[in-house]
Amino acid sequence: MSSLVISRTLRATPRSLQRIGRRNASHGGPHYNEPSGYIFGEKPLPPGQKRVKEPWERIWFWGMYGSMAVGAVLLYYKPDTSIQSWALKEAKARMEARGEKTDYP
Fold this sequence. Notes:
The protein is mostly helical. It is built from three helices and no strands. It has helices at 2-21, 55-76, 83-98. The termini are far apart. InterPro entries: NADH_UbQ_OxRdtase_ESSS_su.
């Protein structure tokens, strides 16, 4: 009985391996968009015609460059939190408290 089960298992194994090898991950096989040679897949318009923008393009433009402008302003007005500037202020305050000169000629 056990030799019969073993022989069936050995016979079934190559077929199951063949089925798995050619399955192509449950879809119709490899496919991709052929390159057309045009940027973003858009053909050039005839002279005198304007390109119609899609609705998301204006939102993306103002969101992207608007956030860059806000970031630049925030970065420009960022408070100075470096240890060197704190140490300079602290040293000047301590020297003035002792009566020493803080300005050198």
